[in-house]
Amino acid sequence: MNIDFEKTQGLVPVIIQDVQTLEVLMLGYMNQEAWDKTLAEGKVTFFSRSKNRLWTKGEESGNFLFVKETHIDCDNDTILIKATPVGPTCHTGSRSCFKTDFNQNFIFELEQIIADRYENPSEESYVNKLRSKGLNKIAQKVGEEGVETVIAALAETDVDFVNESSDLIFHLLVLLREKGKTLEDIGLNLKRQAQ
């Protein structure tokens, strides 16, 4: 990838996007040295215009941005980095510097929360209590929630329908995790079917 740092007097804008939710998290700037360090270390490093030095996001807070994908625009003067954020991205404590109201892709975050419960079991966690009962019980819960969703759709309020649909999706995510599958697997399969 040949980035044209000269066109923009040595600094190019860098858009940081959450690799899972696709939410835009922040905008920063890189020079050649920051770009090289980002690629070498796998953590986003900017050139701070206010500090006049390289600055690795999270170097003080621990809220790093781990690089998953990099893309250069058609003019070779803007970088898009898809990253996995650790903690909030904004110095204010917000997930995004743009203070977006609602993360429409929260379901991907929920998938990660469930994965974390698997990797870091806690007796207080509902996910771990369900997991301890085994695959059959998890699959049974998906079936129960599916029936309850149908009943709510046909005979109950919209609030009940949304609640039961939420329970169904949650339990399906647990079942996917139990089977070692992800929303990405489902998305790719749906994409193939739609073609």
Describe it.
This protein has 195 residues and is α+β, with helices and mostly antiparallel strands. It is 43% helix and 19% strand. It has 6 helices and 6 strands; from the N terminus they run ββαββββααααα. Helix 4 packs antiparallel against helix 5. The longest helix is centred in the C-terminal third of the chain and has 21 residues.
The global form is: elongated
Would you count the extended β strands for me?
6
H/I helix tally: 6
Q: Describe the sheet with the most strands.
A: 4 strands, mixed
Strand content: 15-25%
Structural class: alpha+beta
Kindly list the characteristics that best describe this protein.
195 residues; alpha+beta; 6 helices; 43% helix; 19% strand; elongated
In short:
It contains 6 helices and 6 strands; from the N terminus they run E-E-H-E-E-E-E-H-H-H-H-H. With 195 residues, it is an alpha+beta fold.
Describe the secondary-structure layout.
Blueprint: E1 12-18, E2 24-30, H1 32-41, E3 45-48, E4 53-56, E5 65-72, E6 79-85, H2 106-119, H3 126-131, H4 135-155, H5 158-178, H6 183-194
Parallel strand pairs: 1-6
Antiparallel strand pairs: 1-2, 3-4, 5-6
